[in-house]
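Prompt: Have a read of the protein record below and flag anything odd:
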Amino acid sequence: MAAQNIDDVVDGLAEIVREAVRTGDRIGYFAALYRQVTVEIRAAIHAGLFDDGARMDRFDTLFGNRYFDAYDAWRRDRSGPRCWRETFGLLDDADTVIVQHLILGVNAHINLDLAVAAAGTGPGADIQTLRRDFLLINDILARVVLAVQDSVDALSPLLSLLDKVGGRSDERILDFSVRESRAEAWHNAVVLAGQDEEERAATVERLDSRATVLARLTARPGGLVRPALELIRHTENDDVPAVITHLDNAVRQASAARRGTG
């Protein structure tokens, strides 16, 4: 699939989510998170919150097509960027917990795709004019991730074990992963924007290699994280369609909860 605008991105992600619910495919976990981020970005564009709404529509379309290209390549012949192959290759692994699938998708899409899409939207010196809007997207992403984290907490009652064994008493693991990646993505976008075609290809290859290493570490962690994940897996919801539906309603549920306490 190829999106022409942000509406197409939302529709494409919604279709992936619907099909994943129908077939019980864990690909719907990250797609549900990503769909909600895109819906929120579209709402911000319509509300005039960005310096250049039309540019952000192009940006989000480039970003979305990076995901769709990886998705189509995997479905077609198990090809595509290595970090996405690592991510999609674990979809049938019942030992991988919900938050791992989400972090794997975040890793590939932010540590590789986000910088490429930003540099494509603002090549050369134009990348600096994108900074404020890029940071606003980061704020939107963080807000959605927090809502999805609440949803994951409800699905994985022992998820807090990861914070304890990781020594992050004041962090939530999904938000921590996203915030770390967002800062690095802007730096890489600036680098890519100033490079020629050959240099960009080498940088993209380097980013893919790094994201692939991070994917492998996420999928097969060592130390105390491994037994913690085993405990989480035995207690979390394993009804894949129900999990996708729950994740896909995370922002709406969070908004309803805020209204209920306001």
User: Anything to note?
Assistant: Residues 6-261 form one domain. Confidence is low (pLDDT under 50) at residues 167-171.
